[in-house]
Amino acid sequence: MSIFVFTSYLHNIYMENLFYTDFTSGGRISTPKFRATLQDIDEPEGLSSDVDRYALLTLVKRVGKAFGFSPRMIQLLDYYMSFTRECDWQAEGRPIVFQSVSKTALDFGLSERQIQKLENALFKIGALSWNDSGNHRRYGRRDEKTGHLLYAFGVDLTPLAALETALRNKLEEKQLYEKAWQECKRKISWYRRQIRSLIAELSGREGGKVISLDAQRSYDEISTSIRAYMDLPKLQAMMRDHKTLFNKLLTRFQHIEIMGLFNSLSQQNSCIGEQKFAHLETTIQPPTNKLVPCNPSQDLCFQESVPQASIDQSNSEEDCEDRNDPVTSSGLQHITFKQAHGAASQRFLDHLFMSGNLAPLSFISVPDATYTHGLLGVYELNRIDLIKDMFLWAYEKSSARYVALRQTLGEPDPFRLRYRAALRDIVSSVILQAMEQISAAQHIANWTSENIDEIDRARFIEAAETELLSLHEGNFARYAVRPSEYDAWRKVWER
User: Fold this and answer.
1) pLDDT band at 45; cut points 50, 70, 90
2) What is the pTM assigned to this prediction?
3) Which of 74, 136, 340, 457 is most buried, by CB atoms within 10 Å?
């Protein structure tokens, strides 16, 4: 008797976990998620009036993996949606696909089990449910006149309509992430251009080859290719490494305190693409005149094969002389000032102002919103009022900051500018030879008597000794010595 009671108890538990809709709908294991989808199906809201089913499918494709959709899942969803009609997605309709699993597997070239796994994956993220028959067969019928479903058993896509708001929110998050990713990538590209420029400038200076080689090795370690599969934190780490190296290189240049205040704009604005010119290797050859003795195709240079420029060429003997001109032969006549300005570095642009004894321009104090609205006024409304006022205001602020900084630093010493290279050589020789103070003083005196004019010898000796006394770990790099060489000299100097 007890065994019978226990068996009945187990049977009752099993029946409680088995959910039945009615005598014609079959059964599936009841879970909270499955019961929630059935509740949504019983009260379908349909799509918004301004969204159709294919717009919803496009939204799914744009969100993609960010919401959990794999390419094969999207393909199956697209396939099922082609069997539905517009009336099925209205409030009183039910978008049910009653094609058999075997036919679907045959069309996809997969097995029935693989189709079932894809349906389960779509069910887990809330994109579909099932309206099962008693024997799990999928069948249905439509009204021949209206096209509405009279009855149908199969895959129900009604839950997908309820995901519209969640899909739009996820799409906004994905777009913000991609925007941040592209912004980080663009900043890394800017830092790389600046670093390469600084390395090239260092290698061309006297005693800068050692520093440039060390900087090149550091740059090669961090300049890995940026790929689409890299996530945002990894790109941000790369950007921090590039920024650290960039700031380290800037300290190698004199008056870097001035230049460092006016290089923030280029990090936030990429250069504008130049106009389209015919490439040097183009297969479209310009027309030629057989009466001209010189052959223009032999002297073609970059951007000289512009079709309009070639058509407008004068068919005279003077064309041969023009091609010997350095400007014409290099193609510089086709480059506008706007193109050169957009391709130049911020340090070069600052130099243009400072070479004319003008304060360099900086947008460092301009709010981002004001700068953006000024650009929109130019590109959208073709008006320059706002950006003109912003430019004048920014230049007034930059000028005031530059004047204050010049007064703080003072004017450069003409004597030191004149003997800058000599001072660097004598200080470097003292460090490299690891001289102590008495030997260094004797060496400076002997070197000065041989290489410096008599009228400037006393002041030069004083300047050299002052440079040696003011050396520390933050400024010895200007004399092109290694840290190990500086440490070795410092130990001898402080005895």
Assistant:
1) low
2) 0.45
3) 74
